[in-house]
Amino acid sequence: MRYIRYLFLAVLGVALIAVALANREIVSLKLLPEGLARIAGMNQSVELPLFAVIFGGAIVGLLIGFVWEWLREHKHRAEASRKQREVGKLEREVKKLKGEKHRGKDEVLALLD
Question: What are the residue boundaries of the structural domains of the chain, listed by start?
Fold first, then answer.
C-alpha cells in the first residue's frame, strides 16, 4: 500500500511539473475590471507566471474548503465533547456507587460480587 502511495505522489509530481512547464507565460492579474478600477481609482495589478496563478487558485480553493468543512462540522464536535463529558461523569458516579455498595463488607466477599 505504501508503494502505491509513493507511485501516486510521483505521478502527481510529474503532472504538476508538466503543467508548470507548459504554462510559464507571464500574465497580468488585476484586482478590479477596467471600468471599476477607473471609478475607484485603484488600478492595481501583479505580473505572475500562469502556473503560479493556477496552483495558487487550487491552494486557495482547498483552504476555503477545509475551513468551510471545519465550520460545518462544529456542531458534531460540540456534541461529541458533550457526550464525552457525560460519559466521564457517569463513570465517576458508577465508581462512587460501587465503593458505597461494598463499604463495611469483607474484601474477599466484595470481590466476589
Answer: 1-72, 74-113
